[in-house]
């Protein structure tokens, strides 16, 4: 129907592979995962876990899912759960912008700036909104963003 239209978006499994490579390059062997409930978050974390198993040498401390409609206090609970395995300071996020922001806010309220090291997917990659005003807790985060290019004409 639209013979001259093309949009090629790489699958999230490529991001997951890149995130595993980043985690391994940092020398981490014990991380937690955090996903927004739904296809994007859950399939992204699933791809990360699969890629980490293939690569070997990486243990997932826990995989936490953020509900689609979180109740008040839900993000404080998420941070509390992450602290249950506090030696897993690396956290891999496949989450939407709002969930990322609320996780960072909860970490700030729990006085955990600098405790966690975040590795985020493309939902965070080039956006300021998730971290604006929360730079201290987000400091040092690494985000993945697939290469983008426009075709002239």
Automatic annotation (TrEMBL):
<comment type="similarity">
    <text>Belongs to the G-protein coupled receptor 3 family.</text>
</comment>
<keyword id="KW-1015">Disulfide bond</keyword>
<keyword id="KW-1133">Transmembrane helix</keyword>
<dbReference type="GO" id="GO:0016020">
    <property type="term" value="C:membrane"/>
</dbReference>
<keyword id="KW-0325">Glycoprotein</keyword>
<dbReference type="InterPro" id="IPR001828">
    <property type="entry name" value="ANF_lig-bd_rcpt"/>
</dbReference>
<keyword id="KW-0472">Membrane</keyword>
<dbReference type="Pfam" id="PF01094">
    <property type="entry name" value="ANF_receptor"/>
</dbReference>
<dbReference type="InterPro" id="IPR028082">
    <property type="entry name" value="Peripla_BP_I"/>
</dbReference>
<feature type="domain" description="Receptor ligand binding region">
    <location>
        <begin position="1"/>
        <end position="152"/>
    </location>
</feature>
<dbReference type="GO" id="GO:0004930">
    <property type="term" value="F:G protein-coupled receptor activity"/>
</dbReference>
<dbReference type="InterPro" id="IPR050726">
    <property type="entry name" value="mGluR"/>
</dbReference>
<keyword id="KW-0812">Transmembrane</keyword>
<keyword id="KW-0675">Receptor</keyword>
<dbReference type="InterPro" id="IPR000337">
    <property type="entry name" value="GPCR_3"/>
</dbReference>
<protein>
    <submittedName>
        <fullName>GRM6 protein</fullName>
    </submittedName>
</protein>
<dbReference type="InterPro" id="IPR000162">
    <property type="entry name" value="GPCR_3_mtglu_rcpt"/>
</dbReference>
């Amino acid at each position: 129907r639209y013979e001259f239209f093309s949009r090629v978006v790489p699958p999230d499994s490529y991001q997951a592979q890149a995130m595993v490579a980043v985690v391994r390059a940092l020398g981490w062997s014990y991380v937690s995962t955090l996903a927004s409930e739904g296809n994007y978050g859950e399939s992204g974390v699933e791809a990360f876990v699969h890629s980490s198993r293939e690569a070997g040498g990486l243990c997932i401390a826990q995989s936490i899912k953020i509900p689609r409609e979180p109740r008040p206090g839900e993000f404080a609970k998420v941070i509390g759960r992450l602290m249950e395995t506090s030696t897993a300071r690396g956290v891999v996020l496949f989450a939407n912008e709002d969930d990322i922001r609320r996780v960072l806010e909860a970490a700030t309220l729990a006085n955990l700036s600098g405790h966690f090291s975040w590795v985020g997917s493309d939902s965070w990659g080039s956006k300021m909104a998730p971290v604006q005003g929360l730079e201290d807790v987000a400091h040092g985060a690494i985000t993945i963003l697939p290469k983008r290019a426009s075709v002239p004409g």
